[in-house]
Amino acid sequence: MRSITTSISQSRAPALTRMSSRFCGQFEEMIQFHSHDPERAAVRLWDLLHQMRREPTGSRPQEALHPHLQIALSMIRSRQSEKIRVGQVARAMGVSHNHLTGLFQKRFGCGAIRYIQRERLARACHPLAHSSLAAKSIAIEIGIPDLHYFNKLIRQATGRSPRNYRLSLTGKASTKLIRP
Known about the structure:
Elements lengths: L1 H10 L1 H24 L1 H17 L12 H12 L7 H8 L3 H12 L3 H19 L4 H7 L5 H12 L3 H9 L10
């Protein structure tokens, strides 16, 4: 078994090692949350699963990205639950805000701010659809601590409030979500 793991690791060593170490760190963080905040731990677990699903699979390799874009994406992914300022990311890399925004525009068809927002919304939709976690917990975990702003973004993206989006996908009401 170890030889199989070793041969796989050697063939994809750099990417697999980065993904593995990032996953392990975030998994340990999720375990720490579990003892005092099980809901937050559940959101972190969904987030980790979502990240694993979204990792590049070879159709468009991560190595094909511009080096500044690779660094920016790594910084954004490592600080997903925090407030992220594009200017700070650009300064940390030694490039201008406009240069970084241009790279995002060229690769993803939108600026860096919109990219971060889209990623956060994608991360929010899965726990909204597949768990009974409170919208506030999900919002905080994805880096949007303002519940009203989170509701507005979900409404803009889906045409529904978070509660109605959840109900449309599950077809049933959760007692946590419906007021008496």
